[in-house]
Amino acid sequence: MPTMVDVQDKAVTVRHARARSAVTLPEAVLRGLQATGTTRGVDGAAVDFRTAKGPVFCTAIIAGTMAVKKTSELIPFCHPLPIEKCNIEVRLEGNRVLIDCSVSVTHKTGVEMEALTGASVAALCVYDMCKALSHDIVIGETRLMHKSGGKRAFDHEEEFV
Questions:
Q1: For the residues 76-103, what does the mean pLDDT come to?
Q2: Number of domains in the chain
Q3: What is the pLDDT averaged over residues 14-37?
Q4: What is the rounded average pLDDT for all residues in the chain?
Q5: Structural domain includes residue 130
Q6: Fewer CB atoms inside 10 A, N or C side of the chain?
Q7: What is the spatial order of strands in the sheet that 96-107 belongs to?
Q8: Helix/strand/coil for 58
């Protein structure tokens, strides 16, 4: 029978997790994004692409952060957690948007699902923000890259495919 894991006897520790998602953009989308211009930072450097819906990366960061906080509402057996830190980084490498979602909590259970959910929803948001340019966008691999603070630490430093 499905059930939530009993964590009452687990130790409270600081727990961290980082997940990564990749979104592959076709050349037409890259050209379209570059043609619409970018949002500029305080120093004048380009920090984000814009579509008719607004800044792509900033919106993905907001969506991913919201998803992290609502993971226990989406995944049936996840414990609701008082998230202490959530950081989402979105960057363009070649024709891929790479999204890293790092989450921390001091609790009896880890935040792997929160990090995976945040990265996944941010990737879905990138798709949504860019779909008017093409439906050939591919949401690819999502992977847990790191976890610490529980019984088993995990570091996946291999090349992200």
A1: 95
A2: 1
A3: 91
A4: 90
A5: yes
A6: N
A7: 85-93, 96-107, 13-24, 138-148, 154-155
A8: helix
Domain extent at residue 69: 13-147
Residue in this structure with the two tokens 């439906």, named with its chain if needed: 135
CATH number at residue 32: 3.30.70.640
E-strand ranges in the chain read: 13-24, 38-40, 46-51, 54-55, 85-93, 96-107, 138-148, 154-155
Residue 19's contacts (CB-CB under 8 Å, 6 or more residues apart) are 100, 101, 112, 115, 116, 118, 119, 120, 142, 143, 144, 145
Q: What pLDDT shows up at residue 2?
A: 85
In sequence order, the 6+-apart residues with CB closer than 8 A to the CB of 160 are 20, 22, 98, 141, 143, 145
In angstroms, the CA 33 to CA 50 distance is 7
The answer to whether position 122 is within a domain reads yes
Which pLDDT score, from 0 to 100, does residue 4 have? 81
Structure tokens at 48: 């984000």
pLDDT of the residue at 43:
55
Active site residue 43: no
Query: Does 157 fall in a domain?
Result: no
- Let me know the angle formed at the C-alpha of 112 by 56 and 83, rounded to the nearest 5 degrees: 75
Residue type, 145: M
Active-site hit among 9, 128, 136, 155: 128
